[in-house]
Amino acid sequence: NKHHDGLCMWDTKLSDYKSTSPECPADRDFFKEWADASRATGLKNGIYFSQTDWYHPDYMRDEKSHKRYIETMHGWVRELCTDYGKVDYIFFDGLGGLATNWDSENLFAMIRGLQGDAVVNMRCGAYDAKDWPMHRWLQPSEDVRGQLPMTRGYPGDFDTPEQQINRMQTDRPWETCMPLQNGQWQYSPNCAMKSPKGVIQTLVNVVGRDGNLMVSAGIMPDGRLDPRAVKVLDACGDWLKQYGETIYDTRGGPYYPTPFGVATYRGDTIFVHLLQPLIDPLTLPPIQKKLISSSVLTGGEAEVSQDADGAITISLPAEHHHEIDTIIVLKLDGPAKDAKPGRLVLGSLATGKKVTVSNVYSGLACFAGDNAVDDWRYYKNGLEVYRDVDSDFNRKADQFRWFHTSGSRWGIDDNEDGQIDRWKTISAEEVSAEAVAALSSGDTQRFMCLVLTPKELKSLGLGPEKQKQLGATIS
């Protein structure tokens, strides 16, 4: 209906920059044609509307000018929600921004009053900042330091991740929007097209995470769909004719996605979508339902069994793997939504196992030792915050160091019993904190680590008399 370039693709009364203008060669009300065609074919009628406008002279210029633009923008949305019958879907595309930028409070109230059943996406002021100027641009992600009083604005009815697949999300509807051309929305004869396999697997991955997929085919200058896109869509349609029952009217789950694929379900049936060949048997987490039967919808055979704890194991011969998606149908003795998968207990992958070195620091031989791990480093937000060191290569940590946001302490464990015996480095603030902790817990050893040793006293160079006095005080 209106993209960022500002051209209105309907017969608006609020601008001459429109597809029905005498100066526009098309001279057509495209939204009327779209709405009529949608209803005639039984499809839902949707609006695409970009609040951003690179043509309008009042857009984001100053407070007064942008307020005039907001009045025009709301008027455009009012026309679309009033003059073209029932609207089922509104896709805002404001390139971010806050609720303040679009006066979302009044805009949403108007939409709900005119088209109460329409579902609206979250791209029209999902967040806001108190007292933020209307004409000043800000995206929530730009407030990296968290210094603004960001608040929830008007998130609409569903989330819209763009050109990426969302996490598993069952508590709020979401839809991935994605062009059929690789990374590009507008038509380009030189841009590669996604393969049918890639689109189908994207669809399966999205639905298996409880989402919806919207794909966009680039429109050629003469208004036709790119023939390459038609070919891809036809192939996807053929696949859905065969296996659409595992996609349409299903929910993602009850299993969480795995590296091998995802699951969808409807009623008492789970559809396991294996997008990668199984080299070893796949064991799914235990569920609170009994497996009644199983089959391979895409052809071939699989060994499927359920143990006493409810875990289901699938073994599939390589020759029965489907190139796009191998679909295993699991029939349960009750609703799949109540299966409630538990934890799959595989045992520890590390306990009692031999550790080998995967890297020698900077390739230096002096760090290689006996080819055993002698340095453990822990990171938070990209910064090293703690380190255990085995300095004598006997496979026991004897040095403990804190870094960056965790402090600057460097403790030494002389007898390697897991307790710090002395501090090589510690700041005054950390000494105070250690002392308070030692006194409150009655930990004498911890407190004595903070006391100067005779060797440390001598290193201060205070002279014999002062050294003797200070030593007596410490004692």
Automatic annotation (TrEMBL):
Pfam families: Alpha_L_fucos
Keyword Methyltransferase: no
UniProt keyword annotations, A-Z: Glycosidase, Hydrolase, Signal
EC numbers, comma separated: 3.2.1.51
One GO BP annotation of this record: glycoside catabolic process
Molecular function terms, GO-annotated: alpha-L-fucosidase activity
InterPro entries associated with the record: FUC_metazoa-typ, GH, Glyco_hydro_29, Glyco_hydro_29_N
Domain (Glycoside hydrolase family 29 N-terminal): residue spans on this chain: 2-245
GO terms for cellular component: lysosome
Enzyme class: hydrolase
Keyword Membrane annotated: no
Function noted in UniProt: Alpha-L-fucosidase is responsible for hydrolyzing the alpha-1,6-linked fucose joined to the reducing-end N-acetylglucosamine of the carbohydrate moieties of glycoproteins.
Sequence similarity: Belongs to the glycosyl hydrolase 29 family.
Protein name: alpha-L-fucosidase
Species of the source: marine sediment metagenome
